[in-house]
C-alpha cells in the first residue's frame, strides 16, 4: 500500500487533539485510517525551554548548563520544561490513565537526563575531563526529550480513539549502540506495516552523525525527509499552521495574498535563505534525490491540497512570494584591495569560524559587503578579527533589511526596475538592489524601518496587480530552442 510520510510542526502539535479529529482521523474509519506515517515535533515552546529560545536567545536548560559549569541553575530550567510538558499533554489527553502514563514518561526521561548531566558535571570537576568536549552530546540528549514526549502522547491519544498507533522512538534513549541515521530509521521501521498501523515517529533521531551538530534546529525535517526517502513514500507532507502564500497575510492582508498551489525546490531554497523555511534545504535535497514530491499544507484546512513542491519549471513567468528579514551589512573597505587576491577568502574564513550565516553579498574594486544574519555580539567579534587581520581597512556594520521577490521564473517581468519604482512611489529609498541571471529572485536593501512598507509596496505592484510576463518564460524559450 503506497504511504505518505507527514510531519506536524510544534505550533500545530499544541492543537493535536483538534487535529486528531480533523486531520488524522477525520471521517475515515477501519483500513482507510492507515497508509500514513507521522513525524512529530515537540509541543510548541518545549524545545526552547530545553535548549534556548530560537528567536530571543533566552537560555533554556542546555544554555544554562553550558554557561554555568559548576552551578545548578540548569536544573530549575529543566524543571520548568517538565512542567510545560505536563501542561501540554494535559491539554491533549482526556483520560486519567493516559495522563498518568504521560506523567510517568516525563518523570522518567527528565529525571534520567538530570542524573546524566549531574554526573557529567561532577566528572568534569576533575582536571582530566573537559565539559566543553561533551556539549554536543548534551545538546543532542536534551533536544530529543521534546519529540519523544510528543510522539508518546500522540500515540496514547490515538490509541484511546481506536487507532492502531505505534510509538516509534528514534531518540536512542538508553541505547548504547552507535548507528548511522539510515540504520536508526531502518531498524525502527523494519517491522512496521503502514497499511494496518499508524507509526508516530519522533522528529529527533540519535545517530553517529549527530543531527544537532549538522542541522541544529532543522533536525526534525531531516528525520522526516530521510524517513520518506528510505521507505519509498508516495508523497512527503508538511502540515503547518498556515498556507505557503505570496506574503504574510498579517502584513499585506488576508484578501491580498495568494496561496502558491505549486512551486519548485528552487523557490524553497530561496525561502530558506530568507529565513522563511518551507523545509530545511538539506532535507529538501534528500527528497529531490529520492524523487519524492513534497506538499506543504495548512493543518487546519485538511480538505485543501496546499502547495506541491517538485522539480517542474514554471509554465510562465510570475512573482510567487515577497518576503524579507532584518540583517546587518558588514562592510570591509580597503583602498589597497584593488587587484589583490585573497581578501574575500579571508572575510569568508572569519565569518565561517564565527558561525555567521551569509544571506547575500556585494563587492566592487575596494569594498566587500556581506549581508549577514547575526547577533550584534557575534558581529563585534567578527569585526575585531577582521581589523586585526587588515589594520588599514575600514571595517564597519550597519543595520539594514532585505526584501526579496521570489519566483520559479522572473524573466521578462522587469522585476528590478518595477520594484524600485514601486518603492519610490511608496516614498521608500532602496540602498541597493540586485537580481541574478537565474531569474529566481530579486533583492532590495533598505533601512530597517522600511521593511514592512517595502514588502507591502512590492507585493501590491508585483503580485496583487498580477504582473503578466512580457516574454515567454525561460523554460519555454529553452524548449523552443
Description:
It is built from 18 helices and 14 strands. It is α/β, with parallel strands linked by helices. It has 2 domains: 4-241, Acetylglutamate kinase-like (Carbamate kinase, 3-Layer(aba) Sandwich); 321-480, VC0802-like (2-Layer Sandwich), CATH 3.30.2130. An 8-stranded mixed sheet has the order 3-4-2-1-5-7-8-6, with helices on both faces. Strand 10 and strand 11 (367-373) form a beta hairpin. The chain is globular and about 70 Å long. The model is unreliable at 467-481 (pLDDT under 50).
Give the SSE map.
Blueprint (H helix, E strand, L loop, with lengths): L3 E5 L1 H4 L2 H9 L11 E5 L5 H5 L10 H7 L5 H20 L3 H28 L11 H26 L4 E4 L12 H9 L8 E5 L8 H5 L3 H12 L4 E6 L8 H4 L9 E3 H9 L7 H10 L3 E5 L8 E4 L10 E13 L9 H11 L3 E7 L3 E7 L2 H14 L4 E13 L8 H11 L6 E4 L5 E7 L3 H14 L9 H7 L1
Q: Structural class given helices, strands, pairing?
A: alpha/beta
Total number of strands:
14
Distance between the termini: 42 Å
General shape: globular
How large is the share of residues in beta strands? 15-25%
User: For the report, how would you describe the main beta sheet?
Assistant: 8 strands, mixed
As for the number of domains, it is 2
Question: Could you give me the name of the CATH homologous superfamily of the largest domain?
Answer: Acetylglutamate kinase-like
